[in-house]
Amino acid sequence: MTLNSNAQPLTNADDNQASIADNGINLATILEPYFRPDEQTIVCGALDEAKVKALADAGVELIINLQPDDELSFDESAAVERAGMFYEQLPISGVADLKQLKILAFDNILRQHHGKKIAMHCGSGNRAGAAIALRAGWLRGRKMDTAMERGRSHGLTKLEDEVYKRLLVPR
Predict the structure, then answer these.
(1) Domain span holding position 31
(2) Which of 57, 85, 122, 144 could join 66 via S-S bond, C-beta 3.0 to 4.6 A?
(3) Is 117 helix (H, G, I), strand (E, B) or coil?
(4) 71, part of any domain
């Protein structure tokens, strides 16, 4: 199922609008899961060669991979570079990696590529959403509800309770 930034099913009009912004590529039919919190940001699950090509064809300039190497089934870095995109890998294996230093590194990547069309992924989008929520709360000073909603719009699901607990601790 395709979700928009409020974690609601996208309408056909939303799908068509996103497709126009993506050089006619309907990413919602290619990526699973697929989150589109804004026009410049795509969050999805694990990639393969075909998905990397589709993202490149859709005008994505940067892939941020939050999966560690042992979760990858192909040489993603090489595939992304062959497709003409930038590649950043910041492995987040799970809860233990949701630390402020990792979130600072994540923030640094996003700042370096500000304004570019990006796709970030992990296995399901859950870790990407967690990183976004923690960034919003810890580094951007957003209120709890706002930070959590930002995370959900980027795929936060199973890690929601852990992220909430971490945001309760002042940084």
Answers:
(1) 2-125
(2) 122
(3) coil
(4) yes
Q: Is residue 50 part of a domain?
A: yes
CA dist 47 and 114 (Å) reads 22
Phi, psi values for residue 36, rounded to 5°: -130, 75
Instruction: Report the length, in residues, of the chain.
Output: 171
In a domain, 17, yes or no: yes
Q: What burial class does residue 55 get, using C-beta atoms within 10 Å of its C-beta: 0-12 exposed, 13-18 middle, 19+ buried?
A: buried
How far apart CA 26 and CA 162 sit, in angstroms, is: 33
DSSP 17: H
Q: pLDDT tens-digit profile of 100-139?
A: 999 999 999 999 999 999 999 999 999 999 999 999 999 9
Question: What's the sign of the alpha-carbon dihedral 108, 59, 67, 33?
Answer: positive
User: Which pairs from 22-26 meet CB under 8 Å and 24+ separation?
Assistant: 22/58, 22/59, 23/57, 23/58, 23/59, 25/54, 25/57, 25/58
- The per-residue pLDDT string of the chain (171 residues; one tens digit each, 9 = 90 and over) reads 344 444 444 444 455 566 667 999 999 999 999 999 999 999 999 999 999 999 999 999 999 999 999 999 999 999 999 999 999 999 999 999 999 999 999 999 999 999 999 999 999 999 999 999 999 999 999 999 999 999 999 999 999 999 999 999 876
Pairing of strands 34-38, 41-44: antiparallel
* Amino acid making up residue 92: I
